[in-house]
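Submission sheet (multi-component)
Chains listed below:
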Amino acid sequence: MNWFKYSSPQSFFPLAGTLAFWFGALALAACAAGLYIGFFRAPTDAQQGEAYRIIFIHVPAAWMSMFLYLVMAFWAGLGLAFNTRLSGMMASAIAPTGALFTFLALWTGSLWGKPTWGTWWVWDARLTSELILLFLYFGFMALQAAIDDPRRADKAGAVLALVGVVNIPIIYFSVKWWNTLHQGASVSLTKAPTMAATMLAGMIVMAFGFWFYSIAAALMRARCIMLERERASDWTVEYARGSA
Amino acid sequence: MMAALHCVIHRDLLLAVRRSSDVLTVLLFFVIVVSLFPLGVGPDPALLRTIAPGVIWVAALLASMLALNRMFAADHADGTLEQMLLGVTPLGMTVAAKVLAHWLVSGLPLVLISPVLALQFDFSQEFLGTLMLSLFLGTPVLSLIGAIGAALTLGLRGAGALLSLLVLPLYVPVLIIGAGAAESAVSGLGGQAQLLLLGALLVLAGAFAPWAAAVALRISTE
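Outcome: structure written.
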């Protein structure tokens, strides 16, 4: 099978549609199952009561926020190295979903922090680095939005994403050292040492749900970008006529 | 090649001297921002002493960011940059020379004036050396990282605000470690660990940032 066949927008477009549909369906199923486990199966936490249940949104969202940045940088780097059109489109399609999950992780984190720590926000290492990750996503999107020529936008965004990837571990460790150098963390994010198997299962299922959602959302967005950028070519005109 | 680099540095410094108000603006911005803090948070010497390194570092960050726009803009406008792109000297080296020249006129003055500002905050004289050394090692890193941002936003609308959005998150480690050096020196831990880390960041940024900025310049001028 010739994988390069799908590196052209024309042949990838229908495939992306099919994949987006199936991953969307899988995402719905996994999220429904995950929420069911989280709300009806998982036991109440001994220390935090019912408030801990936000973990089923919070932790998978935080995982996805970091993972999506890596995926975005991977596509961006691929585009820069091989000068492929589709890679850049994938990178810009992933960015909003990544920013969404970063925001979701911060938002649910502060909702979780209020009842358990008694504060909406602490300058904990993880919170701070997640906030900076959000800024990095915003920077990437703002840079791409400011450049009119899509090819230049792809490449400039790729350089920024790669510089960001190099920086993420440095940022994470500097924030961690900053916090520990000053004072012992007043609140610890460390969970109870043993986690009930159902809790873990709920979290994993939700993580898969979010993962499939990200794939579906990114592919749908990539389809829109493809149509927009390839609007001069025959296949998009045909597609527009066919769907009109 | 060394002759070409020498020429780039000499030219940029000469241009800066001929238009010295640009250099002074950045320096005055730094001084004014630092002076605003006591007015905002109150003149309590104990509080000022604690926040001094942080305030000076944040102001240095903002001032060096303010100067970034000028790093490539004038050369881009008059076509010099294109000649540099076409030249035989490796572009990364040319960029490194330009960054060095830029730091000499926008970063070094901040380092030199910082002790005066620190004294305004009643910062202990004993640790002025650590503060200056941290700025001396840290501000070149800011210029190096900033060069990537300046190259990426070259010729864009609203480049100034966009540039700050791009580079400020990347400045975070330098800020944390830089301000931490003087703070931990004051607290009796000694600032060596942070100074060594700043040195490491400088080496890392010095090795890779000019190269990334060169790639960005090629993309921006395509």
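Remark: Confidence is low (pLDDT under 50) at residues 181-189 of chain A.
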